[in-house]
Amino acid sequence: MNERQIDLAHAVALGSIDDEDHQEVQELLDSEDPVLRAEFAEQAKDTKRALSTFATAAAVTPPPSLRARLLAAIAAQQPPVAS
Predict the structure, then answer these.
(1) pLDDT value of position 81
(2) Of 1, 5, 75, 80, which is least surrounded by CB within 10 A?
(3) Where does the record place the Anti-sigma-K factor RskA N-terminal domain (predicted)?
(4) What are phi and psi of 56, to 5 degrees?
(5) C-alpha dist (Å) from residue 22 to 2, 11, 19, 26, 44
(6) Which parts of the chain have pLDDT scores under 70?
């Protein structure tokens, strides 16, 4: 795989493919080269796995007061209900 194809696999893993890149990704997935298709799929899978591992490792438990503050903020912004 070339650098552009690796970048596209990363974008697929992030779910950030735009319309311009979508066609290029589709061509890779439709490629008659089974090695290229497999490498692309493996790169996207590896990237998703790495992102998941990083997200899990970086996760922090929010403070208990956050839920109450969020619910109060939401309640304060609700429009009046018509009767």
Answers:
(1) 60
(2) 80
(3) 6-47
(4) -65, -45
(5) 17, 10, 5, 6, 14
(6) 78-83
